């Protein structure tokens, strides 16, 4: 067998998963694609189904299971966090303001990475902080590209409107002035995963005295560039 690891059962399981990469397969289809004996193919497919690495479609054919997508998302998140440090540090150095990376988790957003301004007045958001999805430019970004029903629910009680989010989608960035916290302004842009879905928001934030009432004019391009670098890192394979 090519690509033999020396652990036969794993090699055969990998054959089954690879066979399903091209789409749904019946048991006969799996046997033909893998060259495994029918009882072996069946036993492995059912065992992989138990671990949610294989599932069945409406016709009862074998398909790749949800656990693989969960693992892929976790791997993507790790890659995002591995890349985020230098990108946020560069963004902080270019803008002179604190930089953050947020991911959505249910009805909250979590700061998963940050680069603090080194001195003077700064807007400190410690890594691990949970903030509401109802205010702030990062919340606007994480909400703007949601499907209509979730968007409608999320706008209830929000400090921003559907019209504002329409503008965010058109421009590709968001700004807020005193929306999340009095005296604080911020600018954010979307980070997209391989499927083009918005998976995170990269932001800079600081006092309105420095960022002015039009923070996007000062920092939108730098934030967009940082988001593009993170998006590119997620799209790179391997």
TrEMBL record:
Pfam families: HTH_IclR, IclR_C. Keywords: DNA-binding, Transcription, Transcription regulation. Coiled coil: none annotated. GO terms for biological process: negative regulation of DNA-templated transcription. Residues 67-236 form the IclR-ED domain. This is IclR family transcriptional regulator. GO terms for molecular function: DNA binding; DNA-binding transcription factor activity. The keyword Mitochondrion does not apply. The keyword DNA-binding applies. Residues 7-66 form the HTH iclR-type domain. PANTHER family: HELIX-TURN-HELIX TRANSCRIPTIONAL REGULATOR, ICLR FAMILY, TRANSCRIPTIONAL REGULATORY PROTEIN. Gene3D superfamilies: 3.30.450.40, Winged helix-like DNA-binding domain superfamily/Winged helix DNA-binding domain.
């Amino acid at each position: 067998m090519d690509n033999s690891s020396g652990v036969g059962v794993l090699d055969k399981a990998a054959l089954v998963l690879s066979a399903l990469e091209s789409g749904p397969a019946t048991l006969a289809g799996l046997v033909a694609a893998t060259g495994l004996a029918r009882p072996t193919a069946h036993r492995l497919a059912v065992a992989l189904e138990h671990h949610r690495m294989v599932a069945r479609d409406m016709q009862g054919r074998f398909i790749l299971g949800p656990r693989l997508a969960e693992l892929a998302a976790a791997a993507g998140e790790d890659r995002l966090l591995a890349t985020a440090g230098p990108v946020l540090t560069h963004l902080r150095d270019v803008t002179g303001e604190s930089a953050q990376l947020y991911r959505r988790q249910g009805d909250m957003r979590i700061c998963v990475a940050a680069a603090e301004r080194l001195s003077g007045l700064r807007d400190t958001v410690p890594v691990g902080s949970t903030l509401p999805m109802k205010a702030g430019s990062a919340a606007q970004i994480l909400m703007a590209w949601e499907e209509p029903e979730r968007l409608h629910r999320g706008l209830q009680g929000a400090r921003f409107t559907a019209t504002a989010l329409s503008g965010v989608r058109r421009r590709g960035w968001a700004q807020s002035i005193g929306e999340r916290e009095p005296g604080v302004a911020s600018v954010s842009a979307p980070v997209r995963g391989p499927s083009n879905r918005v998976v995170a928001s990269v932001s800079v934030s600081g006092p309105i005295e420095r960022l002015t009432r039009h923070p996007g004019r000062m920092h939108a391009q730098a934030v967009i560039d940082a988001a593009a670098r993170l998006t590119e890192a997620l799209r790179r394979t391997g």
